[in-house]
Fold this protein.
Amino acid sequence: MSLDIPDVVIERLPQYLRSLRALKNRNIALVSSADLGIESGVTPAQIRKDLSYFGKFGKQGQGYNVKALADDLTRILGLDQSWPVILAGVGRLGKAILTYPDFTPEGFFIVSAFDSDPVIVGTDVAEITIRPVEQINEYIKENNIRIAILAVPGESASDLIDQLVQSGIRAILNYAPITPKVPDNVQIQNIDPVHSLQTMTFHLSDITLNTNS
Amino acid sequence: MSLDIPDVVIERLPQYLRSLRALKNRNIALVSSADLGIESGVTPAQIRKDLSYFGKFGKQGQGYNVKALADDLTRILGLDQSWPVILAGVGRLGKAILTYPDFTPEGFFIVSAFDSDPVIVGTDVAEITIRPVEQINEYIKENNIRIAILAVPGESASDLIDQLVQSGIRAILNYAPITPKVPDNVQIQNIDPVHSLQTMTFHLSDITLNTNS
């Protein structure tokens, strides 16, 4: 089924879910695609098209039932269950990730964290005792972990990713400043603030050019 | 000019630039679109199409001059200049951002940082003295800042973004877990690890479904 659904559609679903939850918190029971569009910043036509991949939602002239659609999207996205997650790399960024408050309410539990630095290994961060990275593959296999967060330097990331995938990891949230290649059955999302800044300066430079011309 | 160039094309340019730099570091002077494709994980046809938006690059049968194309992309992306950047929010994440080593080599200099917490204001992080957030608008105007990084909680992000835009900010790297609306002349890139995880669990759930069916 998922083979036919474009990645961009899937990437908009969490946004719709967040908007629906905000509407629910404001005690709104029914919402039109127009109003959901205002809330989520997506055109109503796009919303209707995106949702049509997953079945029939909403009633003509009535709009969507906020709670029902939120529940359906939660299920479609696999968020009706808890996901144990491991972290590789407990430097400054890794520590910020370990104490980030927004993972747990969404069902993502960091259950263990690994580092190669003997000074860091054995210390506690956010009630997790950091393990040596040599134990990461065994841990993944023994605990059936499918999701890893990577906060290691760029030079060590590629080798580590290969190991993680071999051990059974199927989804990687990658903070290392590289764009790694992974097999087709492995999901990867790269978080790269420099890349994000670089796509924006294109527009800023252009503004400057226009101003001078 | 930029109006005709799709965002997805612009978002791939930093990736090409990174690949070209890696090739240059390996002393490779000329590269085919096929080899640049292997390096960057994009199809050769897509690379040629993307680059064609910006002019004529490479010679038939010779490929691209690695250094010349890297220089051109650097200029196109506005990375041939330094960009002063301000940070709003110096909690744990903000501190990790302030000490992140990869901004400066790419020309992004965090020149000041702001927080609303009186305990944090006045302290030094990475040789920057944290200022009270009340001074942020004045600072932006006086120093012609165009880029802001936002690492504040979701509830305070929307109001702050409105202020920043009014003071002259034109590009926002947003770590707050919201999807804010900004005017058309303002760029925004959202870094949202929960959203990234949620798009991946869709595929993991699907795998599970297939296994059970």
Notes: Chain A has two domains: 2-76, 83-192. The radius of gyration of chain A is 21 Å. The first strand of chain A starts at residue 30 and ends at 31.
